[in-house]
Amino acid sequence: MAYTIDLTGRTAVVTGAGRGIGQSIALMLAEAGADIAVTDVKDEFTVETVGKVKALGRKAAGYAMDVSDFAASHAVIDTINAEFGRIDILVNNAGITKDTLIMRMNEEDWDAVLRINLKGAFNCTHAVSRIMMKQRTGRIVNIASIIGLIGNAGQANYAASKAGLIGLTKSSAKELASRGVNVNAVAPGFIQTKMTDVLPEDVKQAMLNLIPQKQFGQPLDVARAVLFLCSDLSAYTTGQVVVVDGGMVMS
Ligand code: NAD
Prior knowledge:
With 251 residues, the protein is an alpha/beta fold. The protein is 46% helix and 15% strand. The protein is built from nine helices and seven strands, in the order βαβαβαβαβααβαααβ. Strands 3-2-1-4-5-6-7 form a seven-stranded parallel sheet, with helices on both faces. The mean pLDDT is 97. The structure holds nicotinamide-adenine-dinucleotide.
């Protein structure tokens, strides 16, 4: 028997969807049939992804949403719910890095990363949870990182935000399970995007040496795992962390 994933009639909100992993997730969900609310910190960042989703024949609209702003995130999520009529899927993908050793890390670097990567996911989860609980169905996927599992010198703020996101995933999964809402995390390893392009060559080489599959991941690799977690195939899976890293971290 062949299994297919069909998200026709469902609406997905993807944060930080203007490029990189977020764009890939938006396109993968659209290919599976979902309509997509493309959100990013600035309106103009959403244009490319909206065009690509529409080219796939799905409904799409772009929204400026700074996930770190509680009131603004709620206002945008409410607008999306009104304009699309429902929200079935939320992918908390927006994230930043501000890497440096703890000794050199200033308060702004710490606060910015925690505010966007962790509080941002809380803000959007808080905003959609009432909608999904009322519908008695929903999927929330948080894009964490293997760094949240293993830590990394020079990334204390990022590691703390992603470890926190895993805690948020498990807690919201427990709170929302009885209402038909599944919450899971995907923890990517080293994925080739603009976020990792800026790393020095020697750091990239050192990373590569730690990956059993001997290659970096692509946004599509992450998107495939997200698609599974947004589909009916993962109905009995909640509160889990799916690692997509070419075998870099095995627990
Ligand atoms: P990216 O920098 O290419 O994309 C991040 C997106 O988030 C951008 O479109 C950006 O505009 C948006 N964004 C930034 N601040 C925002 C805010 N305040 N509100 C809304 N949107 C905001 O990065 P990426 O590599 O595609 O990363 C996507 C996610 O995957 C991040 O959460 C990142 O931590 C995670 N991740 C990436 C890797 C990797 O190797 N690239 C590995 C593990 C986890």
